[in-house]
Amino acid sequence: MTSKQKLAILGGGGVIGLFVLLTFAQNWGQAIAQRDVKHAENAVKACLANPKAAAKQCAYASKEIGAAIPEMDPVTQQPEILKAHQQLAQLLMATGAYREAAKSYVKVAAATPQQSPPYRDVALAYSLGGEHRAAVHYATLSVQLAPTSWKSLQMLGRVQYRAEMPKEALESFKKALTTAPKEEKPGLESAILKIQSKLTPSATAQPTNPSPQPEGAAPLQPPSQASLPVVVNAATVKETP
Predict the structure, then answer these.
(1) In angstroms, what CA-CA distances link 136 with 11, 99, 102, 152, 231?
(2) For the chain, which terminus, N or C, has the lower number of CB atoms within 10 Å?
(3) pLDDT in tens, the chain (241 residues)
């Protein structure tokens, strides 16, 4: 064997060794990222239970999950990435970072584009963050995907009202009323009456800006952990009107 052949063999071995090392490092990084997300779960629970009392846990969990997401493999760890985005969004909602939360919810919605509930979450986050046009846009998408879902219609009505679109909000609440379960109808009826009273001309001057939320309707709040769709596998998520 000549010197050139020996060098060629050594060179090839070095390339293979480097490839193995890089692959190991990548896999190790992905495993560590997934571990960090799991370790943050207790902090997530504490934060969602009482954001003010658990401020340190909120900050810790947000930092850990936010740093872990880019390290995950979008091909082999897609379900884990979606769950992490949702957890991060929940944390951000709990701490009032609504616009940042909306960005994470958008990631979940983009992975399940034919499902209505994730778009409701995006709409809620943008509405609470003062981005009313974006909120109406995503709430409208939610209704387009589930035209008879009272939850989607109700969300559309809420964000339309906050966007100073009372006439459109009234129509959305009326549609929601037709498909809502019995126990939800009183709140919707109260919201409808409240909006109608604002739209009816009277001798007394009416305020030009609507109140943040129709009286009687459930107030806009960050969704609880239980009410949010937990994405385990995007293909298995189904709409529940």
Answers:
(1) 60, 14, 13, 11, 24
(2) N
(3) 666 555 455 555 554 554 444 444 445 345 555 565 666 788 888 888 888 888 888 888 888 999 999 989 988 888 899 999 999 999 999 999 999 999 999 999 999 899 999 999 999 999 999 999 999 999 999 999 999 999 999 999 999 999 999 999 999 999 999 999 999 999 999 999 999 998 987 544 444 554 455 544 555 555 544 443 333 333 333 444 4
Q: Nearest CA to 61 among 94, 30, 28, 29?
A: 94
Domain ranges of the chain: 12-96, 97-199+211-219
CATH architecture of 97-199+211-219: Alpha Horseshoe (1.25)
